[in-house]
From TrEMBL:
Alphabetically ordered keywords of this record: Signal
InterPro entries with a match to the protein in the record: HSP_DnaJ_Cys-rich_dom_sf
Source organism, top-level taxon: Bacteria
Protein name, entry field: Uncharacterized protein
Organism from which the protein derives: Actinacidiphila reveromycinica
Range of residues in the leader sequence: 1-19
Length: 83
């Protein structure tokens, strides 16, 4: 049974670290554009040029982390439910 307790403790520590990360830095890099805000492409000559604006992050290059999104939803639900 000690391995089960250790596994649970490891999961709790990982969740606490992720919660601290979401608190300290609520925005992460967009996975589609890599944080550029646009798609990098090549022109006919092979030079790298700026492409279209990223649709996922709308050109900001950042996204809201999943944990922060869940926190925002929970606080909004609580705020609207206690009026």
């Amino acid at each position: 049974m000690p391995s089960l307790a250790a596994a649970i403790a490891l999961i709790v520590i990982a969740a606490a670290c992720y919660a601290a990360l979401c608190t300290a830095s609520p925005l992460g890099v967009c996975r589609r554009c890599g944080g550029f805000g646009f798609k990098v492409r090549q022109n006919r000559r092979g030079r790298i040029v700026r492409g279209r604006e990223c649709r996922r992050c709308r050109g900001y290059g950042q996204r809201v982390r999943v944990g922060r999104h869940l926190y925002n939803v929970a606080t909004r639900l609580h705020r609207e439910g206690t009026r």
